[in-house]
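Hi U.,

Before I forget, here's the chain from the pilot set. I'm dumping it here mostly so it's searchable later in email.
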Amino acid sequence: LCNIDARIEMKNNEELYPMAEHGQSTYLMHQVVTNQMYVHCYFREFLLVSNLGDKYRRMLARTKNTGTKRVLDIFQIFFGGISALCLARDTREEKWRKIGEEFKQQMAKLLEYSTWNFENKFCLLQAELYYLNGCHGMADLSYQASITSARDHKFVNEEALAYELYGIYLVENKMAVKGIQQLRMAMYKYKKWGAIKKADDVKNFIELVKQSVTLWNQEAEPMNEAKY
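Structure:
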């Protein structure tokens, strides 16, 4: 860092994207899109993730580098898959399911080459697909498998994401107490990764869940009294 020329003007993603598009720089475009997909996926802005992936693929189709494969393309498969499956569950639109299933199949092929790098990612995509299909027992096992694999292979950020998605799954399926436990683990792992803003985001979500649990309990009390 000490050798960087101070005269170089640093650009943010909003400035770099049109530069990459205008100059048809697939390398720069890849870096910008991957960075933005990271942020949008972790903050659950899933439609933005999908839109970015579409833009990137359209640009590749216009260049001579359509056959180029990059190691970092795995993140577009991973984040694109997570986003599509979550959108499929939220919107019930079949197109998102198909996109999510396609990304999961691509991750399965990558898994054949490296268990270390891709096992936790595949398990998390599989968990989201099981959840979408209503296979709750298999979803639960797959979330836990993703967490274990990410921990064993030292991907602390993806371990945090798996804890978070598992926690959300549990909360949405009326297992709020266990879900909060997983969300607290996600918050701890995000802090360990250095993602303080994301950790605060999870903390705020936990507070919302607690409020909802209180409301559920208040609504349930008259029913219990009436029963007895």
